[in-house]
From TrEMBL:
<feature type="binding site">
    <location>
        <begin position="77"/>
        <end position="79"/>
    </location>
    <ligand>
        <name>NAD(+)</name>
    </ligand>
</feature>
<dbReference type="InterPro" id="IPR000846">
    <property type="entry name" value="DapB_N"/>
</dbReference>
<feature type="active site" description="Proton donor">
    <location>
        <position position="140"/>
    </location>
</feature>
<keyword id="KW-0521">NADP</keyword>
<keyword id="KW-0963">Cytoplasm</keyword>
<feature type="active site" description="Proton donor/acceptor">
    <location>
        <position position="136"/>
    </location>
</feature>
<feature type="binding site">
    <location>
        <begin position="106"/>
        <end position="109"/>
    </location>
    <ligand>
        <name>NAD(+)</name>
    </ligand>
</feature>
<dbReference type="Pfam" id="PF01113">
    <property type="entry name" value="DapB_N"/>
</dbReference>
<comment type="similarity">
    <text>Belongs to the DapB family.</text>
</comment>
<feature type="binding site">
    <location>
        <position position="137"/>
    </location>
    <ligand>
        <name>(S)-2,3,4,5-tetrahydrodipicolinate</name>
    </ligand>
</feature>
<keyword id="KW-0028">Amino-acid biosynthesis</keyword>
<keyword id="KW-0220">Diaminopimelate biosynthesis</keyword>
<dbReference type="InterPro" id="IPR022663">
    <property type="entry name" value="DapB_C"/>
</dbReference>
<dbReference type="InterPro" id="IPR022664">
    <property type="entry name" value="DapB_N_CS"/>
</dbReference>
<feature type="domain" description="Dihydrodipicolinate reductase C-terminal">
    <location>
        <begin position="113"/>
        <end position="247"/>
    </location>
</feature>
<feature type="binding site">
    <location>
        <position position="33"/>
    </location>
    <ligand>
        <name>NADP(+)</name>
    </ligand>
</feature>
<dbReference type="Pfam" id="PF05173">
    <property type="entry name" value="DapB_C"/>
</dbReference>
Length: 250
């Protein structure tokens, strides 16, 4: 039996690529394409089992709650999630009327990016310094990227667990924010450049040495195996799953 899939944000860069990937995947059937202005309802979802959301950080949480209410499982690639918005989804999924529903939210579905986050967290405890540089196409609306935030959080958690203090940094004056955003104590720098798609570099430093971990998504095709995997697996995972690493044997 095939899995019926609706795509929300279907006219966008990711949504349109996901529609094609669903159509090309064995055992998946594209039954609905929704975009801005379309209402989420059992009618418009057209019998979908799973909905995939690639929309906008300002709207994705509302979409997820509406999709749960409409009775579908949800795979989310849209960024902009916080601990608080994750918690609201967890609470919604815990209600009796949402029994059996599942949501997977992942800031990045590309294998190279998921591995970068995993390797960075593993390496972090061994280095005095760690910074994240993300580089994207200039049409991206949010900075830093969701991937960079997740990477920085993973590094920070590993540093804290290892008992490392703050990264060394003698900066006294930075009126224009040249040291970047600071996510859980880890500096994150965002580059927007025509020609790029989605890239990230994690630099880790010790006296006399540096480790660089880099991921490059040159094409949105890189995200599709992860999205298709999540669509296939979401039905079997009740509740909220955060990150594609949870579906891989990492
Ligand atoms: N997890 C991952 O692996 C990846 C995540 N992303 C993330 O996915 C998101 C989308 O990126 P991208 O495809 O490049 O963005 P786009 O702007 O190309 O696409 C978003 C689409 O969603 C539409 N949209 C906006 N609001 C709604 C709504 N309320 N309901 C339905 N559709 C809506 C937009 O319409 P309109 O243009 O009219 O506003 C647009 O067609 C971003 O948050 C990005 O960071 C991107 C790549 C990979
Ligand atoms: O907007 C994008 O393009 C991307 N967004 C995601 C993010 O913010 O991490 C994933 C990937 O970097 C592409």
């Amino acid at each position: 039996m095939s899995i019926a899939v609706a795509v929300v944000g279907a006219a966008g860069r990711m949504g349109s690529t996901v529609c094609q990937a669903v159509q090309d995947a064995d055992g998946l059937e594209l039954v609905a394409r929704l975009d801005i202005g379309d209402t989420v309802s059992a009618d418009t979802l057209n019998g979908a089992d799973v909905a995939v959301d690639f929309t906008h950080p300002s709207t994705t949480e509302d979409n997820v709650h509406a999709l749960i209410d409409a009775g579908v499982d949800v795979v989310v690639g849209t960024t902009g999630w916080t601990d608080e918005s994750y918690e609201r989804v967890r609470e919604h999924l815990a209600r009796p009327e949402a029994a059996g529903r599942s949501v997977i939210i992942a800031p990045n579905f590309a294998l190279s990016a998921v591995l970068t986050m995993s390797f960075a967290a593993k390496a972090a405890r061994y280095f005095e310094s760690a910074e994240v540089i993300e580089l994207h196409h200039p049409n991206k609306v949010d900075a830093p990227s969701g991937t960079a935030i997740a990477t920085a959080r993973g590094i920070a958690a590993a540093r804290a667990e290892a008992g490392l203090g703050p990264v060394p940094d003698a900066t006294e004056t930075d009126p224009d924010g040249a040291r970047g955003a600071v996510v859980d104590g880890v500096h994150v720098h965002a580059v927007r450049l025509r020609g790029l798609t989605a890239h990230e570099e994690v630099v880790l430093g010790n006296p006399g040495e540096q480790l660089t971990i880099r991921t490059d998504s040159f094409d949105r095709a890189s995200f599709m195996p992860g999205v298709v995997l999540a669509v296939r697996e979401v039905g079997g995972r009740e509740g909220l799953t955060i990150g594609l690493d949870r579906l891989l044997d990492l």
